[in-house]
Design brief:
Family: Belongs to the DNA mismatch repair MutS family. MSH3 subfamily.
Protein name: DNA mismatch repair protein MSH3
Number of domains: 6
Helix content: 40-55%
Strand content: 15-25%
Pfam families: MutS_I, MutS_II, MutS_III, MutS_V
Keywords: ATP-binding, DNA damage, DNA repair, DNA-binding, Nucleotide-binding, Nucleus
Largest sheet: 6 strands, mixed
CATH superfamily of the largest domain: P-loop containing nucleotide triphosphate hydrolases
Subcellular location: Nucleus
């Protein structure tokens, strides 16, 4: 560039250009005619560079059109007007002149479409398919770019609505999960028409933008891996919804809570992955302990809370409980019922209104089923869940009544309260909240995802019917007894499918069967084939061992039922699975492109509609490859000419450049279209071939569409056999759980407990804590001797030094009870166990800041719940009741609560840990060893150095009697507290102890002296004081 040109260019940016008089006067007239005169301009500042957007305007680029076309249409006068309007100072505008307003940007059809979609779906992040990418626009693009750590692109466009970030379409499934994990609702927008179909069918103008629609809406709990690519590993392996989730992951529920009143609640929870529906009605108080228990089981990620019409917000205790369980939980508040019609007090009208809404999503038979079997509060939960799940196309989760279960069924199993789950570390430990050291981790040796899911239910719901427990124990004994090749073969099969969630795949088929949108099927072809082929394989395996199964000598009715059902299905219904598989062409597995998999999934001649499209394709292929090729050969005088395919372009002919001049006239006259030219060859396509090729491509698109439609019908046929497939999977899951319990029960020194249904006996020889012994060697075993056949040893008061093993002992008792009723063997020499229907534990010192409760308040609320919910088959464990308040009040409450439990008509079994020695006198108040004092063994080593505390050695064994000293100073020493502080504390402790003892001696001496003087006329109170002193001194010895 010459210096003159460079100077000219720079002056356009940095120098104020004075327009000619004629141009200025014309511009002034135009501006003045449209707007009132402007005030005189301010004094001109020093010249400054234009903004980047202004520079672009000066060069004729407005950001919406191609820069070349813009420059061509921009005249000199327009260029001057732009410069004048963007120049900040230095121009000689008159007082009447005003800069012309910038011309409004014209939106392209695609931009208009993006804005329309964004306007219609403001509550979600939209991933819009444009070419081979999915793009996010506007403010949502900024959020997504931060989540995915990808580039946020503005392209110097001032309109932030079109700033974007993008991801490849092949990575949609992976990135979508990452966005959903942050709690967002996401809509996937796909292009639902192709260029060729648009041209042939002429559904819209050729200039119109491609039609796009929201084909799927997802949240964390409702995404089932729908957008996984056919060729991804997760898709082939058939993993559950998250594809990367492990079998130990907590299920993700969507929960609807109905706050009927301050104390009455209804709840319905759905797990979309497996189609499970759980309901319950219950009473609760301000502590929301019952609600917390249910939420702890369900671990919801999305919650709908219904409040009555008079309440405009969720109650504080309910909201705090939800945040306590999952602070990232998405909470939606709904006031009243969507079916309210002004007669909300009339149940009949309310019922009719609910039925009207349900009938939009369910058939008449199902609506009647829900109306008859569930109360109105439960029906309202169903109603709101139907409305909520409709957006995600999951309403048919309510179409299988067999999947609907009650949260609590006292005749079958017990529900462990939230405090019990946490204190016993059933699913997670209390240290880092992982599964390490938990009971579930010990018991979970399952081989499959669906087996682990069922075992989690078994662990959280111990059985209460003695025969059901015996069946599981007997199944373990049968599986342990001797090697069985049938059991081993099925076990190997389960290991083979450890990453395949058959239960989840079956649910996906059910959802997809009613989804009319082929762009958003919940399951892909490979997953369908995996499900069917593995179901066939297990049935063939059972058929193979038919004689062995019939000759089984199993005593367990549970095992007999599993093998009998599988054998019956293999003999009568395997033909159904074989018929489905006979329609599938296995060559589709090797296809790399999803469109090719679609075409080759079904065998030829399986469907007339597909064959019709194949015939049309063959017809046009023949036209192009035979008739048109023959014409081309004659025209170009080359009998050996063949089509070539390059860069995805089909049916091209290649002509060397040195022959092109000779054939130029023929190529022009015969309508040959130039496709591409290189240094050596030029590629053409004849115009008539192009027309036939369009028709061929159209029918290829129609073939894919037809294959998708037939695949949809195929899924409907599969879904009609849902019950059959579910029965096979359920039996496999039960067998997997029994194998898992057998593995744990085969650990060293585990034994089958003897069950007693008559009383609450717990007699265990050399009992060990099941999880601690796995983490620590040389665990000290203890005997458990609780036999209340004659109302003896029903209440155990346990004292002892800190860190002596008191909590470990009572947890061992509770865990052995839970393991027994789950159906597992116990870590001990031998055991005789009674059957409990509830286990309550009050342990630990935890406040609840979210609920606004202090440590002591939480302690008292938990005690109140235990007292109100206990039964005649309850195991109650109380740890240091009353320690959260003053000593006098604490002792008084501990004494009164324990005495109430002793005298209760329910007569529960109670283990009471305390550091209050005075409570031990209850042993003397109740005869026949109803209350017994125990302590954890230790050995005290006296220290001859004055002022030094004695050393103690913890023995961790349970001994009869009471201990007055908790040896807290020794624990402080172990914790590393300064030696000087401990010495000072020891001196104070000894002085206080001697003062108390001296006071007790004087009180005793005074009472004894008065009694001796008065002889037989002593008052009962005086005699009680003497008895109390003598008994306390005797017990301490």
């Amino acid at each position: 560039m010459s210096s003159q040109k460079r100077q000219s260019t720079l002056s356009r940016f940095f120098t104020t250009i004075k327009p000619s008089q004629s141009t200025e006067s014309t511009l002034t007239e135009k501006v003045s005619s449209k707007s009132p005169p402007l005030p005189p301009p301010p004094p001109p500042p020093t010249a400054s560079p234009s903004l980047p957007s202004e520079k672009l305007l000066e060069f004729g680029f407005d950001g919406t059109k191609d820069s070349t076309s813009t420059r061509t249409t921009t005249t000199k006068s327009k260029d001057v007007e732009k410069r004048k309007s963007t120049t900040s100072s230095g121009s000689s505008f008159s007082s009447e002149s005003k800069p012309k307003r910038p011309k409004e940007k014209r939106l392209t059809p695609l931009e208009k479409q993006i804005l329309e979609l964004t306007e219609q779906h403001q509550d979600k992040i939209l991933l819009i398919q444009i070419g081979y990418k999915y793009k996010v626009f506007g403010i949502n693009a900024l959020k997504v770019s931060k989540i995915l750590n990808i580039m946020y692109i503005s392209n110097d466009i001032e309109d932030t609505r079109f700033h974007y970030c993008s991801i490849p379409d092949t990575r949609l499934h992976i990135h979508l999960q990452r966005i959903l994990s942050h709690g967002y609702k996401v809509g996937v927008v796909k292009q639902i028409e192709s260029t060729i179909v648009k041209q042939i069918e002429k559904t819209s103008k050729s200039s119109d933008v491609m039609r796009r629609e929201v084909t799927g809406v997802y949240t964390k709990a409702t995404y089932l891996g729908d957008e996984s690519n056919e060729n991804t590993k997760g898709s082939w392996d058939g993993l559950s919804s998250s594809s990367s989730s492990s079998s130990s992951d907590v299920p993700e529920y969507i929960v609807c809570i109905n706050e009927v009143s301050e104390k009455q609640f209804a709840i319905v929870a759905v797990q979309p992955l497996i189609g499970e529906v759980i309901f319950d009605s219950f009473k609760d108080d301000i502590s929301r302990q019952e609600l917390e228990t249910r939420l702890l089981y369900l671990r919801p990620v999305e919650v709908i809370v219904i409040t009555n019409g008079s309440s405009e917000q969720i109650s504080g205790p309910t909201l705090m409980t939800l945040k306590l369980i999952n602070h990232n939980c998405n909470i939606i508040h709904k006031s009243g019922s969507p079916s309210e019609n002004g007669n909300e007090n009339e149940n009949e009208n309310e019922n009719e209104a609910i039925e009207a809404i349900m009938s939009k999503y369910l058939n008449e038979k199902l609506v009647e089923y829900y109306s008859i079997n569930f109360s109105i509060p439960i029906q309202q939960c169903f109603e709101y869940l139907l409305l909520y799940l409709n957006e995600f196309k999951l309403t048919n989760i309510f179409t299988i009544p067999e999947n609907i279960t009650n949260f609590q069924d006292s005749k079958k199993y017990m529900i462990l309260p939230a405090n019990t789950l946490n204190s016993l570390e059933i699913f997670t430990n209390t240290t880092d909240h992982t599964t390490k050291g938990s009971l579930f981790k010990l018991l979970n040796n399952t081989k499959t995802i669906f087996g682990s899911r069922l075992l989690q239910k078994w662990v959280s719901r111990p059985l209460v019917h003695i025969q059901d427990i015996k069946d599981r124990h007997q199944a373990i004994e049968d599986l342990q007894s001797e090697y069985n090749h049938v059991v081993d073969s099925i076990s190997n099969f389960l290991t083979k499918i450890k990453y395949l969630d058959l239960e989840g795949l079956l649910s996906k088929i059910h959802y997809s069967s009613t989804n009319n949108n082929n762009n958003n099927l919940r399951i892909n072809r490979k997953q369908v084939y995996l499900l069917l082929s593995n179901l066939q394989e297990i049935l063939i395996l059972v058929q193979k061992f038919e004689k062995s199964i019939k000759s089984f000598k199993f005593k367990s009715s549970l095992l007999i039922q599993i093998f009998d059902e599988l054998l019956t299905i293999s003999q009568t219904d395997i033909i159904i699975i074989e018929n489905f598989l006979s329609m599938i062409d296995l060559s589709f597995i090797d296809c790399k492109e999803s469109s090719e998999q679609c075409r080759k999934f079904f065998k030829r001649n399986s469907f007339d509609s597909i064959e019709l499209q194949y015939q049309n394709i063959a017809q046009y292929q023949q036209q192009i490859e035979q008739e048109q090729l023959e014409i081309i050969r004659k025209e170009l005088g080359n009998s050996k000419l063949k089509y070539v395919q390059k860069d995805g372009e089909r049916y091209l002919i290649e002509i060397r450049n040195n022959q092109r001049d000779k054939l130029s006239k023929i190529l022009d006259d015969k309508d040959y279209i130039l496709i591409k030219s290189t240094q050596t060859i030029t590629r053409y396509r004849k115009k008539s071939v192009t027309e036939y090729l369009k028709l061929l491509q159209y029918h290829e698109e129609m073939l894919i569409k037809t294959c998708d439609e037939e695949f949809q019908n195929f899924l409907k046929d599969l879904d009609s056999n849902y019950t059959l497939f579910y029965k096979i999977i359920k039996n496999l899951a039960i067998f997997d759980c029994l194998l898992s319990l057998t593995t744990t029960s085969s650990l060293p020194n585990y034994t089958r407990p003897t069950l007693i249904d008559d009383d609450l006996t717990i007699l265990v020889k050399q009992a060990r804590h099941p999880t601690i012994e796995q983490l620590r060697p040389n665990y000290v075993a203890n005997d458990i001797n609780i036999n209340i056949e004659y109302d003896k040893n029903r209440v155990l008061i346990i004292t002892g030094p800190n860190m002596g093993g008191k909590s470990s002992y009572v947890k061992t008792v509770a865990l052995l009870t839970v393991m027994t009723q789950i159906g597992c063997y116990l870590p001990c020499q031998n055991a005789t166990m009674g059957i409990f229907d509830s286990i309550f534990i009050r342990m630990g010192a935890n406040d609840n800041i979210l609920k606004g409760y202090s440590t002591f308040m939480m302690e008292m609320l938990q005690c109140k719940n235990i007292i109100s919910m206990m039964s005649n088959r309850s195991l109650i464990i109380l740890d240091e009741i009353g320690r959260g308040t003053g000593t006098i009040d604490g002792i008084s409450l501990a004494y009164s609560i324990l005495k109430y439990l002793i005298e209760s008509e329910f007569k529960p079994l109670v283990l009471f840990i305390t550091h209050y020695p005075s409570i031990h006198v209850l042993e003397q108040e109740y005869p026949n060893q109803l209350v017994v004092n125990y302590h954890m063994g230790y050995q005290e080593i006296k220290n001859n150095t004055p002022g030094e505390i004695p050393e103690i050695i913890f023995l961790y064994n349970l001994c009869r009697g009471v201990v007055n000293n908790s040896y807290g100073l020794n624990v402080a020493k172990l914790a590393g507290i300064s030696h000087d502080i401990i010495k000072q504390a020891y001196r104070v402790s000894e002085k206080v102890k001697s003062d108390i003892e001296l006071k007790e001696y004087w009180k005793f001496a005074h009472s004894l002296n008065k009694a001796l003087k008065e002889g037989g006329s002593s008052s009962p109170n005086q005699l009680d004081d003497i008895d109390y002193y003598i008994l306390s001194k005797h017990s301490s010895l």
